[in-house]
Amino acid sequence: MSKYKLSVIIPTFNTGVFLHESLGSIINQSIGFENVEVILVDDKSSDPLTLSIIDDYVSKYSNIKVIYLEENSGFPGRPRNVGINASTSDYVIVMDHDDNYEIDAFEHLYNTITKENADMVSSNYFEEYNGIKEKHTYIFGPDFDKIKISSIDEDLRFFDIGPAIWIKLFRKSFLKEHNIRFLEGMLAEDLNFFINVLLQSKSIVYLDNYFGYNYKIRDTDEDKSTIHVRNKKYLGAMISGYYETWDMLKNLNQEKYFSNVFRAHLVFWLTSFIASNISNRDKKDLAERMGPILNEQLKYTPDFGEIIYIPLVKPLKDNNFDEFVKASNNIKKSRKRRMKIKNFIHKLKI
What we know:
Blueprint: E1 6-12, H1 18-27, E2 36-42, H2 48-60, E3 64-68, H3 77-86, E4 91-94, E5 100-101, H4 105-115, E6 120-129, E7 132-135, E8 147-149, E9 168-171, H5 172-177, H6 189-200, E10 204-216, H7 232-251, H8 258-275, H9 280-298, H10 313-317, H11 321-349
Parallel strand pairs: 1-2, 1-4, 2-3, 6-10
Antiparallel strand pairs: 4-9, 5-10, 6-7, 6-9, 8-10
Helix pairs in contact: 6-7, 7-8, 7-9, 8-9, 9-11
């Protein structure tokens, strides 16, 4: 039996000073830091500051351990899996290296998952952008503190819970029993992991009115959160993850949930695709790869649920990806014009 109540897995890569705040939020947890195992998995950092900070914490605290990967994996999946495999407690949670937890987060999540005998407990979280901190959207509403299901069929709104992995505590034996691991070498690994849990768990709890994590969104030329990276590599890595998730639905005989799983994520992908500055040739390559998934979603939402994307529908159905790229570029121009008009009107009101 482990002496720790839970294990926190933190992949690191050239994190720098962000890591101080992240680890500080764990050390100060109300559950007692002595009850927490921290496993840092460094993805071949080249930044001396990051490596120095890791060495400093590992030397000071016996319950902070580090695993150095010999090669950079490029994506979060492998470091997360390595950390889970190395963890010794019965419950695991995965953190991003540049965010932080509320002081009572672990106590709240741990008490809930043990009391409810659940496979997973998830809570809501704060979004922080340019120093402004706001509550993330409610799924059920502020009057719903705790919602529990034993099957996803009981409440399909659980599909609307964001796949963000850092605010979800898992029973490790459940993950092992169902061989649930993060996708490696691609993105959408959170989505794949979360949906796998949703479809196979017999006990899930969601805390809609508890906000336990501070998700820091960065979007500058020098420093971007992954959510704002819009190059071919990342858009392509998301496609790979989507196909793996679609295959998972097929293997579990749960393809009926395709739209529940993908609807919002495909809108996000299209938004990122259209906003990107990659070449038309690269856009065509991505669109051809994404075509079957987008066409499958059109069976459920004829315009992807967004009127602005109607011009994309006919080229998609015709598999005419040159026209698809042209239509996406026109949408981008239209958005820029609307933004200029909006900014102009805003200035007139000042």
